[in-house]
Amino acid sequence: MRKLIPLAAMLIIGVCLSGCEENQKIDLSAEEIVDKALVAIESPITYYGEFEESDGEKYKEWADSDGKSKLKRRDRLQQTVEMFDGKQLFLYDEENGMVAAIKRSYKDIGFSTRSLRLRSGFLLELVKEQCELSVVGEEKVAGRNTYHIVGSQNGGKACIGKPEYWIDQENSMVLKIFENYDERQKVTIEYTKVDFDAKISDDAFVFDFPEGAGVNTIVDPEESSVQEAKEKLGKFFQVPETAEIKLSEIIIFEENKERPEFTFDYTKNGQPEFSVTVFPSSGEIDFGNFLDEEIIAAHGQKGINNSNLHSFSYTWMENGLLYTATSKNTELNEEDFIGYLDGMIEVQ
């Protein structure tokens, strides 16, 4: 005759088996789960999804394994559409009737798109660097099994927003994000529907521009040099380097070939201090025509003060070039900021 197992023993066994099973499911660390998500995002996949943000904005998304994607956003007032054809990202704004075209690779599209999957890459890179990550459990999002990852303060580093991520267990796609900055600012972005077996036709990626919509091609800034600035600007003024102040980077923005724009970034002891942007002016500017303009003297020239609560910013014109200098260090005082500008020397 078979012996009966006491009820208490059965409960203990059941709890043990349940716990063991759960532990077997989460056999990856938070860092491993995030690393898998970062690898997965490098390769396009096919899916149809719908997600929404806590501010009420709703999105519909189509993506294909060849890298093409399309996204429609609807808020209470207007609709925007973006489409990526593998080489360019097209952004249509219904309010102003314009289409912006930005040259992008699949690898770089995450910095420009509103797609939760595509932009989650750089978000995960950031949280991996700043925060201590832990797996707090498994949850369902849009009917799919996910790992729930939480970021917390890592030593002396600030874990901004105390982010939480829900990552699909099967294909490592981020399905939900939560960020908590304070009681008044909490952000949730969550897929409410996602179908990885969706049959998406080529017609889904047709982007017919609305009648009358203009197309504005946007050119990204690129790294440059003092030599290139001399060639395209001619004589110009530059803040000289010292033992503390170093010219860290020069960027050229050349959307208009006749009007190249150079930005010179300076650091002090390795930390951002200020920047100076220079470009040819289309004509003389008589500063002071507007009642709210605060007139200042910068590098001995008449200019205006564009400063705000967070930074100093002066704009002036000199020898046909328009200069705008902006502080980058909140501890920089106005006297020292002006000193940098007064010390600018001519580059020939």
TrEMBL record:
It comes from the Bacteria. Pfam families: DUF2092. InterPro entries: DUF2092, LolA/LolB/LppX, Sporulation_related. PANTHER family: SPORULATION PROTEIN YDCC (PTHR37507). This is DUF2092 domain-containing protein. It comes from Sporosarcina oncorhynchi. The lineage of its organism: Bacteria, Bacillati, Bacillota, Bacilli, Bacillales.
